[in-house]
Amino acid sequence: MNKDSIIKKLKGFFTFKRSKTNEKKSIFFTWLFWKYIIVNLGLALCLYSIVIFGTRSYLDDITNHESKITLPDFKGQNIEDVKSVLDSIGLRYQISDSIYDPKKPNGTVVVQSPLPSSKTLVSVKPGRVVFFRVSKKKKYVEMPDLKFKTKRFAKVILENRGLKVAFRQKPVNPIFAGVIVEQIYRGKPIEKGTKVLVGSTIFLYQGDPIIEPPVFLPNLYGHTINSAKSILDNMGFKYIAVCSDCLTSEDTLSAKVFTQSPEYFKGRKVGTSKTISFSAKVAFVPQPNMPLPKINTGEINQDNKIE
């Protein structure tokens, strides 16, 4: 054998030995890997089973999983009767709302939550809170401010709030004729925002203009300011007095009326709601042909004389 043949055989031998060794090492590491995976997976499954089982046992214990109560239908019953039933079967209750219904007695169950087991086919656990909405026969609303509103408007507003209304007449100044001047409840004035029981009657007083018989208009010409005021006061007139050149109290005492409005003429009549205005001057001297009315509390006749 020559030298080259020997070298080739040696290379082949060592290559075969190395490949055998690598193959054994690959098989060894693969087995260890899967063993590690299987062991950890088994541990995880065991831990998961323990947690699930423990949690279910704990929840069953604190929630009375095996204890179930058939929830009755309480609709239409009085809440006082419902209380005793719920106490006896281990349930609690809470009134969540009240519903105005004048046809039902106070405290009648209108709605319950959860619904009864007969409708849901589901039972409840002990200690469950049952919510109720019960009826009430009384309901209160706020009184609106209807002063100076029209009769029609006031009637609609009150009726929309469930209140009854009755109208009365009240003598007033003509400027308030036809509008509401006063609102009364149970004999007393009622202000805006006051709580009123639904179904109550509110009395609204509508302004009725006072029509007074007219009286003869007095002639103030030539009278002093105080004299003219006294005449108008005695007859029930309102008045406005003007004296442009009255600088002192003495001027006011001596000034005399030279014009008035409404203007005087014999036989003229006006209502006492009329406001009389007159003007006076300090140096005014009345003409002798103008008759002067006397100051007295008696009635003034057609000729402007006191009777």
What is the secondary structure topology, with strand pairs?
Layout (H helix, E strand, L loop, with lengths): L2 H61 L15 H11 L2 E9 L8 E5 L3 H4 L8 E8 L3 E3 L8 H10 L3 E9 L7 E6 L2 E2 L5 E3 L3 E9 L5 E2 L8 H11 L2 E5 L6 H6 L1 E6 L7 E2 L4 E7 L26
Parallel strand pairs: 1-3, 5-9, 11-14
Antiparallel strand pairs: 2-3, 4-8, 6-7, 6-9, 10-13, 12-14
Characteristic terms for this protein:
6 helices, alpha/beta, 307 residues, 4 domains, Trypsin Inhibitor V, Chain A, 4-stranded mixed beta sheet, disordered C terminus, 3-stranded mixed beta sheet
Oligomer: single chain
Quickly count the helices.
6
Task: Please state the structural category.
Answer: alpha/beta
Bulk shape: elongated
The total count of strands amounts to 14
Radius of gyration: 53 Å
Q: How much helicity do the residues have?
A: 25-40%
Number of domains: 4
Average pLDDT, rounded to a whole number, is 81
CATH-scheme architecture of the largest domain:
2-Layer Sandwich
User: How much β-strand is present in the residues?
Assistant: 15-25%
What CATH calls the topology of the largest domain is Trypsin Inhibitor V, Chain A
Order of strands in the sheet with most strands? 5-9-6-7
The main sheet comes to: 4 strands, mixed
Low-confidence stretches: 292-307
Query: Distance between termini?
Result: 181 Å
SSE string, helices as H and strands as E: HHEEHEEHEEEEEEHEHEEE
What's the CATH first level of the largest domain? Alpha Beta
Structure description:
By secondary structure, this protein is α/β, with parallel strands linked by helices. The protein has four domains: 66 residues; 58 residues, Trypsin Inhibitor V, Chain A (2-Layer Sandwich), CATH 3.30.10; 69 residues, Trypsin Inhibitor V, Chain A (2-Layer Sandwich), CATH 3.30.10; 67 residues, 2-Layer Sandwich (Trypsin Inhibitor V, Chain A). It is built from six helices and 14 strands. A four-stranded mixed beta sheet has the order 5-9-6-7. A three-stranded mixed beta sheet has the order 1-3-2, with helices on one face. It has a three-stranded mixed beta sheet with strand order 11-14-12, with helices on one face. A hairpin with a 2-residue loop joins strand 6 and strand 7. The relative contact order is 0.08. The C terminus is likely disordered.
